[in-house]
Amino acid sequence: MTFGIAVFAQVNVRVNARAPVKQATETMHLIINGENHDDLPDGLTIAGLIAHLGLPEKKIAIERNLSVVPKSSFTNVRLEDHDVLEIIHFIGGG
């Protein structure tokens, strides 16, 4: 009998210098995985943040202000100044 083990890893968030960034006049402050980020464009959705940070879209989970955000809502949920996010991605194991 074989049992699989799922491993969760916290994403190390660094802004991808190659990712396109739309010019915004305003920025917002977010706390992502315990780190302050003051340079993010205002009005980002969660999907926009994932793209901005250059993170993979698959096998990722996001908690916003202590509530898990369903993946189906990533394009609809607008982030607000001072939101607290935890971003994790899943690593297969067995």
TrEMBL record:
Protein name (Swiss-Prot/TrEMBL): Sulfur carrier protein ThiS
One Pfam family it belongs to: ThiS
Highest taxon in the source lineage: Bacteria
